[in-house]
Design goal:
The protein has helices spanning 30-46, 48-58, 66-77, 149-152, 158-172; strands spanning 13-15, 27-29, 95-103, 109-114, 128-133, 138-144, 177-178, 181-182. It is α+β, with helices and mostly antiparallel strands and 185 residues long. A 3-stranded mixed beta sheet has the order 1-5-4, with no helix packed on it. Strands 2-3-6 form a 3-stranded antiparallel beta sheet. It has a two-stranded antiparallel ribbon with strand order 7-8. The longest helix has 17 residues, at 30-46. The model has no long low-confidence stretch (mean pLDDT 79).
Length: 185
């Protein structure tokens, strides 16, 4: 997210996140959502555990070869690190708008802290205050899954991409604090 601190006060919020300019509510940007989902796809190219995860979610033992998987990733998410595209925005097939607040019981945001320890565990760590989205808040994830003739012939048709995106968000999360860091909702 975006930092919201001046650096002049003790205990001020050191870590922030994005706020929708229309509603003022926190949201999760589409580019970050796309990055998380793309990363899991890319891990499936390199890592057999992730490839098995895809097979489990899709219920398909005949998942395409790693080369075809890479082609599908580039088709879905756009080219990455292409010299011809340097300095340009790479556009893929699906459009990731983000995750927006659609429901809550009492508060949308609250305070949280983390305590960085660094490499010297004998030093007294100073807690960092931050904002968080409260557990009772419901977010709507908005993704426009584009029907594409090339992808419809592959395992990554519209229905399967929707299923994968949903499971990736449920299983890997989009930013919640865990005992080992952030990442699961």
């Amino acid at each position: 997210g975006y930092p919201h601190q001046t650096g002049k006060m003790t205990g001020e919020i050191q870590v922030g996140f994005s706020f929708d300019y229309v509603t003022g509510a926190p949201y999760y940007p589409g580019s970050s959502l796309k990055g998380i989902i793309r990363d899991v796809f890319e891990q499936a190219v390199k890592n057999d555990l992730y490839l098995e995860y895809f097979k489990q979610v899709l219920g398909n033992e005949n998942l395409e070869s790693r080369n075809k998987l890479t082609d599908s990733i580039n088709h879905i998410f756009g080219q990455k690190n292409d010299e011809e595209m340097e300095g340009m925005i790479s556009v893929g097939g699906d459009i990731f708008y983000g995750a927006y607040v659609v429901g809550f019981d009492e508060n949308i945001i609250g305070l949280d802290t983390i305590t960085p320890h660094g490499t010297d565990l004998t030093k007294n760590p100073v807690p960092i205050n931050m904002l968080r989205i409260m557990p009772d808040v419901t977010l709507a994830v908005v993704i426009d899954i584009i029907k594409d003739e090339e992808l419809e012939k592959t395992i990554f048709n519209c229905d399967n991409r929707r299923k994968l995106y949903q499971r990736i968000i449920e299983d890997f999360g989009i930013g919640a604090k865990r005992n080992v860091g952030y990442g699961n909702v």
